[in-house]
Amino acid sequence: MAARLDEAVDLTDDVRLFAHRLVNGVLNQRARLDALIQQYAPEWPLEQMAIIDRNILRIAIYEFALTGETPIKVAINEAIELAKDYGSESASRFVNGVLGALAVHEHHTHTEHPDPSSTSLARPGASNDDETP
After folding, report:
1. Which of 11, 55, 67, 104 is the most buried if burial means most Cβ atoms within 10 Å?
2. Residues 95-127: tens digit of each pLDDT
3. Average pLDDT of the residues in 34-55
4. Residue closest to 122 by CA, chosen among 61, 78, 53, 71
5. Domains and CATH numbers, the chain
6. Is the pLDDT of residue 85 over 80?
């Protein structure tokens, strides 16, 4: 992955660094991300989800729920656009539904417990597995 990003000549150093952090973060937190996806999309086992939908969800959740670096609305809108461009006809609605449910929970968590360490969606102690995003 790093080699592919380094080969992309039209990327600025900031964009390249952001992409590295994003991909590595998703890879390192995959088990936690997958647990959140299962919690907010219980009718859809991960292995039955389209790979692109699953990875769009992982990236968006990582950005707004685990790192907090991206505003929730921005992460959801970007995920919906990715789903429209690369997913099936219903992918954008599915992604919006899962992320919307998680965002409501995230909002309530931060409203009730302003200290993110008190009840964070980022559960410590999750392990990594070998599936790529």
Report:
1. 55
2. 999 999 998 887 544 444 344 443 344 433 333
3. 94
4. 61
5. 14-112 (1.10.940.10)
6. yes
